[in-house]
Amino acid sequence: xxxxxxxxxxQKRGLPHTHIxxxxxxxxxxxxxxxxxxMVSAEIPDPIRHPEAYETVTSCMVHGPCGPDFLNxxxxxQGKCKKRYPRSFSEETCCDVDGYPKYRHHQxxxxxxxxxxxxxxxxxxxxxNLHLATKYHAHIKMEICSSIFAVKYxxxxxxxxxxxxxxxxxxxxxxxxxxxxxxAVIANAEWQNRDEIKxxxxxxxxxxxxxxxxxxxxxxxxxxxxxxxxxxHEPGMHTVVxxxxxxxxxxxxxxxxxKTTFTEYFQANIDYPLARVVTYMDFPSVFTWTxxxxxxxxx
Length: 299
Description:
Strand content: 5-15%
Order of helices and strands: EEHHEEEEEEHHEHHEHEHHEE
Structural class: alpha+beta
Number of helices: 9
């Protein structure tokens, strides 16, 4: 593993869970169907050979129920499961067009789900790793991905903001005309006196588990190695950030705001002989960028 990113997500109904993206080096990247099948499975394990994994998969790794008979299921959108269940049977694993493999689902083993009393076969099984299922006896979904969208998906949870809950309390009125008039008056009064800041603060939803997590100052996300964003621009075309109340001309012309990682890369080539043999892309591995002074220094 040469890099990893993880984020914590909370849901209204329970405890935190994490999304983890692991990036392997070139020599160990999973590229073949045999590699995929050795790491990820989408089938019910053999209860004789792998009894612990069988117990985990049958109790923690079954999707649904959903479909036409369960239109109110959480995963249903416009009459279809947004998680694409049930999956179709497939004799072999193959690469899909969206960067995710389509895993094999043999039409073999089934079991009866004790919670719903339905017969479950391989096309309802969530992707898992046999070793992790045996060791932890928990819901741990594992996928192999080769798309940059995986990083975007993880950081969606970092920047999406807090969950919100909104409630409305209405007074009951006997006659329809009185009720309609009262609701119109209330709606108009609420709109005229609406305080957006107060509404946001009062509408935030923080569950007990998330509140505890934040009180203990546990991390919500992390990644290694650290990433430095390198700017690339033409002369005088760099981004400048300024306060609304500041004088824009003074801000733009200030010497510190003329410096970027790109312009100071050329200055570092003048100041340090070592910089002349290091490419711009590899610069953060040898030099450190300091935001305060806006300079590259040798680590």
